[in-house]
Amino acid sequence: MNLLVIRFSAMGDVALMTPALIAIAAKYSNVQLTIVTRGNFAPFFYNIPNVNVLGINLKKYKGMFGLWKLYREINKIGPYDKIIDLHGSLRSRLISFLFWFQKVESFRIIKGRKEKLQQTRRHNKKLEKLPHTVDRYLNVFKKAGLDAPVRKGPWLNVDGESKMFAKDFFKSIGLDKKEGQWFGFAPFAGHALKEWSFEKSKRLVKILLEEFSDCHIFLFGGKDELHELEILKDKESRVNIVQGAHLGIRGELGVMERLDLLIGMDSSNVHIAALLKKPVIGIFGTTHPLSGFGPFAQEDTGVLQVELACRPCSIYGNVKCWRGDHACMELIDPYDVVRRIRVLQNVNTLW
């Protein structure tokens, strides 16, 4: 059986496919999984049995003509028995519709929009725990007749090339050998409202250096954030910049694999580190882990948050603060992160 599995974006959501794919591949050895996603996300699926990745550049497939072209290219590497639509976007729905003419049955993710709206509305909120994204993915496979339990992590495998990128990076900054504690810090997110204030991030870096005299800090960010990363580094020799645009996802995976823990906002970096089964501290404000996007398998220990009646006000963080003071993030202090690190250090046998 050959399944076409579709999920184009976003990075964290694509990475979260791996626990579901590993579960299906482990239980159904006769099932071939063809993944269609952005080409730069292909390293997430390394070493999962019976998985082939069709990595694409969506910019080449704009408009209806582009969609038709994409459909034909996907069709070339078929045939497919079923379509597993884990995205539920207009593009993935139209591709499923085109395969319908070949009588290929499709199964689509249920996103729970109504329940999420009940969580995020301003008044009369209904904050109940919703299925995690991984469970929603597995439910799509279940509807297609493939039921499988989640297996033990890690759920991301780091390939040899990623390890080599990381080795070269550490060598370039004079860290040939691991000594002390290595903390990752990803201060940015896809939307500004999901981020701490920059001053809090600056304070955290300084406090970490003071509280953990043996630690090295690795700052994660993109090329557009290099200036801010340089400010956070402040010429400290124990603070290093991991620039995603320079290393690529492969390099970042290799670096993350060597960390002792990662601190970040509700962003892809936290999800990826959790899938590597690294302890994480995700700082959640606007969003809420009960919406189904908590760090996988660390929804409790891996989340730092304060309870406010207005939370969550968004699923993705693309809104404005109703209160106007961003209290959900401002009430979380850098020393709260330090205290959580010490808790994690005392329960590190879990990892």
Automatic annotation (TrEMBL):
Lipoprotein keyword on record: no
Which superkingdom, per the lineage?
Bacteria
What the entry lists under Pfam families is as follows:
Glyco_transf_9 (PF01075)
GO function terms (MF aspect): ADP-heptose-lipopolysaccharide heptosyltransferase activity
Q: Key word Translocase present in the record?
A: no
The protein's UniProt keywords, in alphabetical order, are: Glycosyltransferase, Transferase
GO annotation, biological process: lipopolysaccharide core region biosynthetic process
Mention any one GO cellular component term assigned to this protein in its UniProt record: cytosol
**What protein am I looking at?**
Heptosyltransferase
Source organism of the structure: Leptospira ryugenii
